[in-house]
Amino acid sequence: MSRSLGLNEDLAEGLALAHDLGHPPFGHAGEDALKEMMEPFGGFDHNAQSLHVVTALETRYPAFVGLNLTWETLEGVVKHNGPLVTGDAAAPLPRAIAEYTKGHDLELDTFASAEAQVAAMSDDIAYNNHDIDDGLRAGLFNIDDLGDVPLVGPIFDDVRRDYPEIETSLLIHEAVRRMIGVMVLDLLAETRRRIEAAKPESADAIRRLEAPVADFSEEMREHDRALKAFLHENMYGHYKLNRMTSKARRVVRDLFRLLVDEPECLPTDWRRLAGKPGSKETAHLVADYIAGMTDRYALDEHRRLFDVQARTS
User: Fold this and answer.
1) How do the domains of the chain map onto residue ranges?
2) Which one, 97, 152, 177, 248, has least CB within 10 Å?
3) Looking at residues 259-275, what average pLDDT do you find?
């Protein structure tokens, strides 16, 4: 999309890769659990954690901490969902963002670049369509259930009409492929329309507009809301998913509580940086440790720490 719009492809790709680096294991379930555990210690925010990863936790250079990223990349990581400071009643900034911006102004009261906006919208398109694919293949809902969902139902009907004998797995793949295509084309058309209307003369002018330039048309936005409503009712609230979510939250809570109370159980490199048991310093360190885990590593670490028959390393 960035190429089609004449934007900086390298910046857009970097933001697409970096903007969710701060996500804990188990997606939103893991983030919710870590937020809950960190509430007494200043909270947790995955966008702030992404900034913390690339500016503090990664150590690849002898001269400085963090990665050697451009200002445009850093502001996009933080602001890809929009300005963080809006008016007099702005919410308190997450700790990592507040601390970093004391010495490096990321202009939190403006939008991010067009590249960051495109990356955020691309994430939304991918998220919705992968959830349709996953929900169907997991049996949480079926194709007929999607019949009344605007955009989605008609596209499945079109594929069936074009290929009457198509296998179900290919039907799902082709319908999802077409949905992604329709959403991408709508996003490109609406973004071009907004750029033409605003006539920005610089990247900074785009940042200072009153609305994002990269977005769906109003019709597609309505389709997007309807799809999200369907997924919330039929997938995110499904008892099978609730059970998985419950397990994920318990794993994160268990890991956090144990490691904050017993930081001597942290791996050696992390243990050296820990404060006293139960302290704010240790809580922030443990949050960094857990947020950097994959799902598999979190499960393995939970097993090592709580299963008396499991190996400890």
Assistant:
1) 2-101, 114-213
2) 177
3) 97
